[in-house]
Design brief:
Length: 704
């Protein structure tokens, strides 16, 4: 039995949260800071000075020696620059611990090595980090000691966003403004704030660290680039929700403790479908905090794994033929006084508001399906989306039987726009059954599923930041709300106008609703008939960022400028090309230096044994000869494929234009990689296990 921990005591103990602020800050300063946090007011320098001082004292008590502006550059992971609190020694050689308001609010990391997609020319290479005081600071403990981490946004000298946080915060403002505008139309005068709530479910794999270190592909690319399926795969599904093994259990216990201290409400944990796969979900939080917390979750999963002789793989597809990992992004909009706009509610009046919200979301998702798809695109996710795995690359919305039926009724009744018909429809709405939260079945194949009082966007990749998908969700829904408000604000008869609008949206965007099996071939055909986009790869998804439609959307709500969007396009093509380049080079290295030499060794042993057997006795060696012939043929195939891969990888490196290069990597290099993998995986099944130069899938997946 390990030591007993009291969750209530440790939860948030390393976070500079509201209760710490209230306890330690002078009343007036606390009030000013709260105002800044709640109303987005600017923090004045005097207040900042006091907050910095108190924060530093608190952090030092927690064991911090350094502070760091913690930010999220466009690489999708977090970055930080550590500064110690110590001042220059005085003339007696003594130092003091310092931290000023200026250092709290603003930082200037040497940012020239972060991707900016041309936004930050070298002559103005400065980047600034600015405190996002709506996400609390925390002290993180690891091998280098304690560090006070200050969540920040990262911008260029001219104020262009160089990170994932800034656009997210902008999109949260947009959805706040438009949601409040909509609520006011329905007579709500009390809500002051509407915030997107997000709960991401994180999937991951655990493998033994010693074995991981014997696989260059896992080390360099995070996934296996070779590997034959073990005799037992996931077909028995005995792992899903299976009991958690001791070693994994002690790992999860520590992960939970670390996260709880950081104020991350890690709540559920269980085994996933694939062997060695697990999931962790926190309780939902406001979007920017959820984004920060998800970064902490990913970081903690990796860090703690090392202490248990494990390695955590966050890649979307570490093993071919085994389920990949995703991140289900649960999303809703909640007001400061506890109204969830996605809750169907109990009264007809609220149902009408809900139905408008729902149909606005249908409209948003249908209109911007390409953007949502793009927001889930990353190199690893190409192995899942559109590759016969969860979920398909086609965006559709699952409503469940009950809601779909409601929508169908709305569409079919009230053809004419008379008040009678309208009355009828309203009656129809009034007789809606109470939409019980679990009235409908789950649909595990839908990329965007309504689950009671939230939508679950199931396309996001396990290694990705959830900032991008939520930025898109917030913005497209803000747009739909704004457009609805424009109509409703002008209407003479509000009730009639709402009714018409719900019907109009439901009818116009009905095609996006799909409750069937999203993995089936019939759906692919059906979706094509409906005119829904089926964007199969990241390279094809990227241009969605800079269509006229997208630029107009993001500029209207001040989420991205056109220049920022163009920079993202550049960065994403580059990220794609770089990742595939690393994979190709790793394969070349492994094939040349490990696999081919091992196969040659095996053929030599085989040939020698044939001669030895023949010399000893006049017996039939045709089996050995057959094996030798087969192995040699596969070796020759592998050699040819290797030469081709080397050739196309070199060619790819010479292409300058980012989109052309990325496309070449996808169409030529990836194909050549598959061609090399095929004979090698077959060889793995033949060659003596003792001679095979790396742990097999079986070793990695079943022996954790
Ligand atoms: P499910 O079984 O529907 O997946 P879970 O309880 O596992 O539900 O929740 C999945 C995630 O969704 C959790 O992170 C949870 O906190 C989050 N969640 C629950 N309700 C909401 C909501 N209204 N808005 C956003 N996220 C939510
Ligand atoms: Mg779920």
């Amino acid at each position: 039995m390990g030591e007993v921990i009291n969750v209530v005591d440790i939860f948030g103990e390393d976070v500079f949260n509201d209760s710490v602020m209230q306890q330690r800050l002078p009343k007036k300063v606390y009030k000013d800071l709260k105002k800044t946090i709640e109303e987005g007011k600017e923090l004045d320098p005097v207040t900042a000075e006091v907050v910095a001082h108190v924060m530093k004292e608190w952090a030092i008590e927690k064991g911090a020696t350094h502070y760091s502006h913690w930010f999220q550059p466009l690489t999708g992971i977090t970055a930080e620059k550590h500064d110690s609190f110590i001042s220059a020694p005085d003339k007696h050689g003594k130092i003091i611990m310092e931290f000023s308001g200026k250092e709290l609010i603003k930082g200037e990391p040497d940012a020239s090595s972060f991707p900016s997609g041309g936004l930050r020319a070298t002559f103005e290479a400065r980047g600034y980090t600015a405190w996002d005081c709506t996400s609390p600071a925390f002290v993180r403990h690891d091998a280098i000691g304690g560090t006070l981490c200050i969540p920040t946004a990262f911008c260029s000298y001219k104020g262009e966003a160089l990170d994932k946080k800034t656009p997210l915060l902008r999109s949260m403002e947009a959805v706040n403004d438009q949601a409040l505008r909509l609520l006011r139309l329905f007579g709500n005068t009390t809500s002051k704030k509407a915030t997107p709530s997000v709960g991401p479910e994180q999937e991951y794999f655990l493998v033994d660290r010693e074995k991981y270190l014997q696989r260059k592909d896992l080390i360099y690319s995070g996934r296996t680039l070779f590997g034959a399926m073990p005799p037992k795969g996931q077909e028995l599904e005995d792992h899903y929700f299976g009991s958690i093994r001791e070693r994994i259990a002690s790992y999860m216990k520590e992960v939970n403790e670390v996260l709880w201290k950081l104020g991350v409400s890690a709540k559920t944990q269980h085994n996933e479908v694939a062997p060695a796969q697990h999931e962790l979900a926190p309780i939902y939080a406001q979007a920017n905090i959820a984004v920060d917390h998800n970064q902490l979750v990913m970081e903690t999963l990796k860090k703690v794994a090392g202490r248990h002789g494990l390695t955590c793989l966050l890649h979307e597809k570490p093993f071919a033929g085994v389920n990949g990992s995703g991140k289900h992004n649960n999303w809703s909009i909640t007001t400061d006084d506890g109204i969830n706009l996605l809750d169907p509610g109990k009264t007809p009046h609220e149902n009408i508001q809900f139905l408008l919200v729902l149909t606005c979301i249908l409209k948003a998702v249908d209109k911007h399906a390409d953007l949502l798809r793009e927001s889930a695109a990353d190199v690893g996710n190409d192995h899942r989306l559109g590759a016969n795995e969860a979920p398909p690359a086609i965006i559709s919305v699952f409503l469940g039987e009950q809601l779909e039926d409601v929508i169908n009724q709305l569409i079919s009744t009230g053809e004419a726009k008379t008040s009678k018909q309208g009355g009828k429809l309203l009656t129809g709405v009034k007789t809606l059954p109470d939409l019980a939260k679990d009235a409908t079945d789950r649909n595990r194949t839908s990329p965007f599923a309504f689950t009671g009082n939230k939508f679950e966007f199931r396309m996001v990749g396990s290694s990705a930041s959830i900032a991008g998908p939520n930025t898109v969700l917030n913005t497209i829904v803000a747009e739909a709300f704004a457009e609805a408000c424009e109509v409703l604000e002008k209407a003479d008869d509000f009730d009639m106008a709402v009714h018409d609008l719900i019907k109009e949206y439901a009818t116009a965007h009905q095609r996006i609703i799909f409750n069937g099996n999203g993995y089936s071939d019939e759906w692919v055909e059906e979706a094509e008939k409906r005119g829904l986009p089926n964007i199969k790869s990241m390279v094809d998804a990227i241009p969605a960022l800079v269509t006229n439609k997208a630029v107009a959307l993001f500029e209207k709500f001040h989420v991205f400028t056109k220049a920022e969007l163009e920079s993202h396009v550049e960065i994403e093509y580059e990220a794609y090309a770089k990742a595939i380049n690393i994979e190709a080079k790793t394969m070349i290295d492994m094939a040349s230096k490990q696999i081919i030499p091992a196969v040659i060794k095996y053929t030599t042993v085989l040939a020698n044994s044939i001669n030895a057997v023949k010399a000893a006795a006049d017996v039939d060696t045709s089996a050995q000869v057959e094996l030798l012939t087969e192995t040699s043929a596969l070796l020759s195939d592998a050699k040819v494929a290797l030469a081709k891969l080397i050739d196309v990888t070199e060619k790819a490196a010479q292409i300058n234009e980012a989109s052309v290069q990325a496309t070449f990597f996808r169409d030529e290099v990836k194909v050549a990689m598959d061609e090399l993998r095929a004979p090698v995986d077959r060889l793995e099944m033949i060659v003596d296990k003792e001679l095979w130069p790396m742990p097999s899938y079986g070793d990695l997946i079943f022996e954790v």
